[in-house]
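Design request, tokens follow.
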């Protein structure tokens, strides 16, 4: 065992590009997108897609809006070949979509590739060979001249085969494989040799694709490499400069974005970052990052869950719950302070406002998600989240001090249960705690008469705890009269410190909710009442508060005790 085993690795050398421009660049439009889900994504699967899955994926990619789709490696297997035939013969390729196919720079594979494409309308033939020093030495056993010859001779073969099939609109793409691990001057030499053969023009460009086949460096170094190629390649104005980042260091998205800032016109990748090892760059991630900058990505993710279901079905790999933009948990806040900020921001938000929501970088509704999962309650949550769920799910607008009181009730339940509580759980706890619909704290047949000076006399049958009895009192309104009646009966002053009410529902189903904060002696409690009449709801709220304060009513001879 080496004492310093890390020393067997070579650090990546910075690129000498002191006048680099990409750090100041601002992305203002969508790149050209190429989905390689059916090629690089597929070749990375434990079980490559069967034809039905491939077709479903292709149709999903078309629906999203991809105009360039790499559909396979037709010389690799009969399934790959047959799928491409199915696309062409079955008329599955819209006129404005180009299919792309990959081949190694080997003559018999290129010939087989062209056989698969017979009759297609628009095709990008994508050829690659390794150019990196380790591949030159170990795999291809060729020196630099040999690699240049390998690339340019097969570029010539492709050009000739295409020329012999004028019924198809052919475009060509070349990838110096492992560009990310290759000397820049050599990558340029090989690419220039290929474009010298293809002779692209401004009107008929070829595609030069720079892969980070393995992500070796920080994304700024990849960006430097792309900018260097962008500035040094011959025939640059006749080239669509493409990048193909992988995600070995977990910075594929950053590498893709910085490469676009550095001069790339096009990005190759997969939905949700499927692909070899840690994946190809996640095109959904880059597209929606642009979207949140106010840029139309030209890809439609307005039903992102449909896209996810398709990808999970086709790849048989689940999308992680924390995956950017699509994971089950990415719009959910459990933490109390986050929930509080979200709740306040939703209340403050007006139609037409810019999206400026704490902890929510994108409006979930833009991706077909509801706000249901935005706030979920567990032991990390506070009053804001609890109040948000009761309001959005049950229309209950708890006043602030009641929120504080009720969150302590919830916290005790949470500490016992130790798991997430749903909105329905919270509502059940709320009803139980405040005795909603509970006959053991209720008012029966309240009778009110007006007396002199606009005052009210009230008498009612009351159930409170185990006590059932009659109360009577006067006041400047029904609530005041009821409070006086109860104070008299309890032998203690009951004071209303705070009062809120609102309605829930509408039309014949509308009900009133009253929230009262009561003080009896030195005890302060909230009570809640819900009823078709606001007066009865308020009386219920008073009894709810008294019941929670656990007051015992002094018994008199004639009263019955339950
Ligand atoms: C980075 C990427 O994703 S590149 C795309 C990789 N994708 C795939 O490989 C999936 C499809 N591949 C296949 O089905 C097969 O590998 C085939 C059909 C292409 C080739 O199959 P085989 O001829 O049996 O070769 P094998 O799979 O062992 O590949 C290694 C051979 O390819 C050669 N090779 C590898 N890359 C290239 C290249 N770009 N150009 C020319 N030759 C190459 C190697 O030198 C080696 O040749 P050798 O057998 O003479 O030593
Ligand atoms: C063929 C090339 C583009 C590739 O897939 C890679 O280098 O990752």
């Amino acid at each position: 065992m080496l004492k310093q085993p890390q020393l067997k690795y070579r650090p990546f050398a910075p690129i000498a590009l002191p006048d680099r421009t990409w750090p100041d660049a601002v992305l203002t439009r969508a790149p050209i997108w190429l989905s390689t889900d059916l090629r690089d994504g597929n070749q990375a699967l434990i079980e490559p897609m069967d034809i039905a899955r491939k077709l479903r994926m292709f149709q999903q990619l078309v629906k999203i809006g991809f105009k360039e789709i790499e559909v396979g490696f037709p010389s690799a297997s009969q399934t790959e070949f047959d799928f491409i035939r199915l696309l062409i013969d079955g008329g599955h390729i819209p006129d404005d979509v180009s299919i792309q196919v990959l081949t190694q720079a080997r003559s018999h594979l290129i010939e087989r590739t062209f056989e698969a494409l017979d009759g297609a309308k628009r095709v990008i033939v994508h050829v690659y060979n390794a150019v990196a020093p380790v591949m030159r030495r170990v795999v291809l056993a060729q020196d630099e001249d040999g690699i240049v010859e390998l690339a340019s001779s097969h570029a010539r073969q492709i050009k000739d085969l295409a020329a012999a099939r004028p019924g198809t609109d052919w475009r060509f793409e070349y990838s110096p494989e492992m560009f990310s691990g290759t000397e820049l001057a050599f990558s340029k030499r090989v690419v220039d040799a290929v474009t010298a053969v293809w002779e692209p023009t401004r009107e008929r460009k070829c595609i030069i694709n720079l892969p980070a086949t393995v992500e070796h460096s920080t994304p700024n170094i990849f960006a430097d490499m792309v900018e260097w190629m962008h500035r040094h390649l011959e025939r640059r104005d006749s080239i669509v400069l493409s990048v193909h980042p992988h995600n070995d260091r977990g910075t594929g998205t950053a590498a893709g974005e910085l490469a676009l800032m550095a001069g790339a016109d096009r990005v190759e990748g997969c939905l949700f970052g499927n692909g070899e090892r840690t994946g190809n760059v996640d095109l959904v991630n880059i597209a929606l990052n642009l979207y949140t900058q106010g840029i139309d990505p030209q890809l439609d993710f307005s039903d992102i869950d449909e896209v996810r279901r398709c990808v999970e079905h086709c790849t048989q790999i689940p999308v992680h719950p924390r995956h950017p933009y699509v994971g089950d948990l990415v719009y959910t806040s459990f933490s109390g302070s986050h929930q509080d900020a979200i709740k306040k921001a939703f209340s403050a938000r007006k139609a037409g406002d810019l999206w400026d929501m704490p902890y929510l970088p994108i409006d979930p509704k833009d991706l077909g998600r509801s706000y249901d999962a935005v706030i979920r309650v567990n032991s990390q949550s506070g009053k804001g989240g609890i109040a948000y769920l009761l309001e959005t799910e049950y229309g209950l607008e708890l006043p602030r001090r009641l929120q504080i009181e009720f969150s302590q009730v919830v916290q005790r339940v949470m500490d016992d249960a130790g798991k997430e509580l749903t909105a329905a759980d919270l509502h059940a706890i709320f009803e139980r705690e405040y005795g909603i619909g509970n006959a053991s704290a209720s008012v029966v047949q309240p009778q009110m008469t007006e007396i002199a000076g606009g005052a009210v006399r009230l008498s009612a049958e009351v159930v409170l705890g185990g006590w059932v009895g009659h109360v009577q009192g006067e006041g400047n309104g029904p609530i005041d009269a009821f409070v006086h009646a109860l104070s008299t009966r309890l032998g203690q002053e009951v004071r209303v410190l705070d009062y809120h009410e609102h309605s829930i529902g509408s039309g014949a189903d509308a009900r009133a909710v009253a929230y009262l904060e009561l003080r009896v002696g030195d005890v302060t409690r909230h009570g809640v009442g819900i009823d078709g009449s606001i007066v009865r709801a308020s009386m219920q709220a008073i009894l709810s508060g008294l019941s929670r304060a656990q007051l015992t009513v002094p018994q008199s001879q004639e009263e019955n005790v339950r």
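Comment from the thread starter after seeing the answer: thanks! Residues 40, 43, 73, 75-76, 104-106, 109, 128-130, 139-140, 177, 213 surround acetyl coenzyme *A (ligand 1) (CB under 6 Å).
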